[in-house]
Write a structure and sequence with these properties.
Glucose Oxidase, domain 1, 9-stranded mixed β-sheet, 10 helices, about 25% strand, elongated
Length: about 260
């Protein structure tokens, strides 16, 4: 029997597709291992640029699953945290807290917040917690413009946001609890920066990696970022390998059987 590559080309297309898909299903782990070995920085990324590049490419849902599998903790923010436009970003957390101080007349009450913006490095993500601030704009167009000019990756505000027209015009991505026209001036005071905060129920430390896309926002502890990224990449690879199998066989149950995961 002739098993040369040329003879196999002549077989029916449907048989070839079936064999390819079945082989793909049975060898996802092997193919992932080979793929991972070909990427020298994927298992233990030490270079910050490469680390962020990895998180910018992987899906946030895969990062969330990797975090839960690795840490046993919920590290994603709730459905309340919504983007002002469809966006995807990752960067290192710069944390800020505002404390309610109704009726204050101190002209310097928010100076610490402004100074923190101007000290932020490129690839930072502004993570702001506004005490009881769902109906208070923690940031708006002026702050967003400054962040964009400094190369921030984006912002996550446990509170409101305003000046959406300007933020969208400059393409600066923000996740927040909603759009409101209010101001924090005379209602809040600066309460600290680059300290641990609880943002929409998730603990964030300065320097943690914040990743966001259409599925939401996740927080990756910096000390475990390389480990989490490698697992998330593997989950992404497996899931995307399942799509053509499901499309061909029109069965998610068969795909789960073949790939051993959902």
């Amino acid at each position: 029997m002739n098993n040369s590559p040329l003879s196999r080309v002549g077989r029916k297309g449907s048989l070839v597709i079936a064999i390819v898909l079945i082989c793909a299903a049975g060898s996802v782990k092997t193919r992932w291992d080979l793929f991972a070995q070909s990427m020298p920085a994927s298992a233990a990324v030490s270079d910050e640029a490469a680390l962020l590049d990895g998180f910018r490419r992987v899906e946030v849902a895969s990062v969330s699953d990797a975090l839960e599998q690795t840490t046993g903790r919920r590290m994603y923010m709730s459905h309340r945290m919504q983007p002002i436009f469809t966006s995807k970003f990752a960067g290192f957390a710069v944390t800020v807290k505002l404390k309610r101080d109704e009726g204050n007349t101190d002209p310097n009450a928010l100076n610490g917040m402004l100074a923190t913006i101007d000290q932020g490095a490129a690839n930072s993500v502004w993570v702001m917690v506004v005490e009881d601030g769902a109906d208070i704009a923690g940031m708006g167009g002026l702050m967003g413009t400054a962040m964009a000019a400094r190369g921030y990756a984006g912002a996550v505000v446990d509170g409101g946001v305003r000046d959406l027209a300007q933020l969208r015009r400059i393409g600066f991505p923000v996740f927040a609890l909603g759009a409101v026209p209010s101001t924090s001036i005379h209602h809040y005071k600066f309460d600290g920066a680059n300290i641990p905060v609880l943002c929409d129920g998730v603990e964030v430390h300065p320097g943690d990696i914040i990743a966001a896309d259409s599925d939401g926002v996740v927080v990756v502890p910096r000390v475990r970022a390389s480990e989490i990224l490698a697992r998330a990449q593997k989950l992404d690879f497996e899931e995307h390998s399942m799509y053509p199998y499901i499309e061909e066989y029109k069965s998610i149950q068969e795909a789960v059987k073949k790939f051993g995961r959902l």
